[in-house]
Design brief:
The protein has 134 residues and is mainly α. It has one domain. The chain has eight helices and no strands. Helix 3 crosses helix 4. The longest helix is centred in the middle third of the chain and has 14 residues.
Length: 134
């Protein structure tokens, strides 16, 4: 289910999903405030940490997982603010229904993991349903 319009990377989640989640000032925690801020930032400006946060909170997955895959292809252990591989952990632990609905992305992630299995073996990263060995 690919739903990407042209130039989608230069748009915000608010524009892409045609939804206003509210003002960052309305957030009652740092995490909520940051998520609300990120819905208003063009996706091409997202850092690894921004992707990790938003994917972990299930925001805009169809868009953000696509961006995350590009980062993971470059570096399977792409790191946000916590530890090497924290982006991969959040991507791999998205709910099963998302992966069932987006089989092309599931297959792409499986290939990325297989190609990088040796790098991952020494890491203690929970890969959910993607914990496979060659």
């Amino acid at each position: 289910m690919e739903v990407h319009p042209n130039n989608w990377q230069f748009k915000t989640l608010q524009q892409l999903e045609k939804k206003d989640w509210g003002s960052p000032n309305d957030g009652d925690s740092f995490l909520v405030e940051r998520c609300l801020q990120l819905t208003k930032i063009p996706l091409n400006e997202f850092t690894v940490e921004d992707l990790r946060i938003m994917i972990g909170q299930n925001f805009g997955l169809i868009y953000l997982v696509t961006l995350a895959m590009e980062r993971l292809k470059e570096n399977i252990l792409a790191e946000g603010d916590f530890y090497p591989g924290d982006l991969l952990k959040n991507v791999a632990n998205i709910n099963e229904q998302f992966w069932a609905d987006n089989e092309h992305l599931r297959k792409e992630l499986m290939e990325i993991i297989k190609r990088n299995w040796q790098k991952l073996e020494g890491e203690n990263i929970s890969l959910g349903a993607f914990s496979i060995k060659n």
